[in-house]
């Protein structure tokens, strides 16, 4: 393993587990069937690992929607790891408090603000979504800067919102491509990625529900046409970035 590489596991939808030097950042884990229970959409991907093997050092939840703040999965993770910090915007903090999470582990973050925990420096970025408190983030870890879009539309200001917060060039982009329910579509995702000009681009938020997905090959091919390397991560498989 390279000194500053980031081991990355895609957990499905927009869920990721990032590891650097033994510390792990868990983002938006969605493992349950709560969306089917509440909205009738059947998940097509099973949870890729048992909760007890996640072993996070810090958890980041971008907004209060069922496939991001999973009200079945997150309490189970909290029960296994009761002292692990949970970072999120106001809507996430409100829901977590209502559900009885340990108050001392809850870390509120606002757009434009930064929290450093262990190897991870996390700066909340603007996201334009139906939860008005939604955020994405810039993650600085080792020698890499990663942009994680969260759920967001592509607006006239989003690019400037991101660029105004970055301290160094963006190496890796993780970006939504599904084009439904308040998210940018695949062509818009290609456009924003091209403007950010990362070394690597990874699509997300597809393949979980038949009613809300997109073909990641369209994104990958579009990036490669613009000389940006792009790959599709395999569910549950560790990839060194």
From TrEMBL:
Boundaries of every Metallo-beta-lactamase domain copy: 12-205
Pfam families (UniProt xref): Lactamase_B_2
InterPro entries the UniProt entry points to: Metallo-B-lactamas, RibonucZ/Hydroxyglut_hydro, UPF0173_UPF0282_UlaG_hydrolase
Superkingdom of origin organism: Bacteria
SMART domains hit by this protein: Lactamase_B
PANTHER family: METALLO-BETA-LACTAMASE DOMAIN-CONTAINING PROTEIN, UPF0173 METAL-DEPENDENT HYDROLASE MJ1163-RELATED
Name this protein carries in UniProt: Beta-lactamase domain-containing protein
Organism: Runella slithyformis (strain ATCC 29530 / DSM 19594 / LMG 11500 / NCIMB 11436 / LSU 4)
């Amino acid at each position: 393993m390279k000194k500053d590489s980031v081991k990355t596991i895609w957990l499905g939808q927009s869920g990721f587990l990032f590891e650097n030097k033994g510390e792990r950042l868990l983002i938006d884990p969605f493992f349950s069937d709560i969306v089917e229970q509440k909205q009738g959409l059947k998940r097509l991907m099973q949870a890729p690992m048992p909760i007890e093997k996640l072993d996070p050092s810090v958890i980041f939840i971008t907004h209060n929607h069922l496939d991001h703040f999973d009200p079945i999965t997150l309490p189970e993770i909290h029960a296994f790891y009761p002292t692990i910090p949970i970072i999120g915007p106001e809507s996430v903090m409100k829901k977590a408090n209502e559900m009885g999470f340990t108050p001392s582990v809850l870390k509120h973050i606002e757009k434009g603000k930064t929290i450093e925990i262990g190897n991870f420096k996390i700066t909340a970025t603007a996201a334009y979504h139906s939860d008005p408190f939604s955020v994405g983030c810039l993650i600085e870890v080792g020698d890499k800067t990663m942009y994680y879009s969260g759920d967001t539309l592509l607006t006239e200001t989003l690019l400037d919102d991101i660029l105004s917060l970055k301290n160094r060039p963006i190496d890796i982009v993780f970006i939504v491509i599904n084009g439904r329910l308040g998210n940018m579509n695949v062509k818009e995702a290609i456009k924003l990625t091209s403007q950010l000009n990362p070394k690597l681009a990874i699509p997300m938020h597809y393949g979980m529900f038949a009613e809300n997905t997109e073909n990641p090959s369209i994104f990958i091919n579009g990036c490669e046409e613009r000389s940006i390397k792009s790959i599709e991560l395999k569910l549950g498989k560790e990839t060194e970035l």
